[in-house]
């Protein structure tokens, strides 16, 4: 091929590449509706975890330290899995801050569960009490950031 034929072909390819790049960027962002659907099971996981933690705290007095440590270690594992699922959730860019805030709050609650499990293993009632009190305080932040994220997600999807 001669240079004359290559120039129009190169221009055509460059134009197609630019058009393709422009179209691809807008479709790469997940829709709020898709994010809302995907979040539904995570929301259920968060609620179930909260119920389980409440039950574990209420039943703590009737358990041995080993049982308590095991129960809170399992809750910690579930909470970590929930945080990982939330972090992997693909949301539109304008919801990333709310998603991160909820993830951070859940992460702090997860750390509290690990602290309770450690304290129970060490038979340290004072440390367990302090960690449980911290968990209660962090639970309010989880509720608030969860409500904010869900409200923003619902508004974006509607």
List its traits.
158 residues; mainly alpha; 2 domains; 5 helices
Q: Any overview of this molecule?
A:
This protein is elongated. The chain is an all-alpha fold. 86% of the residues lie in helices and 0% in strands. The protein has two domains: 30 residues; 126 residues. It has five helices and no strands.
Helix content: over 70%
Strand/helix succession: HHHHH
The biggest beta sheet reads: none
Query: Shape, please?
Result: elongated
Distance between the termini: 55 Å
Number of helical segments with 4 or more residues: 5
Provide the structure class.
mainly alpha
Q: Work out the count of structural domains.
A: 2
- Strand segment tally: 0
Secondary structure elements and pairings:
Elements: H1 3-28, H2 32-58, H3 65-88, H4 96-121, H5 125-157
Helix pairs in contact: 2-3, 2-5, 3-4, 4-5
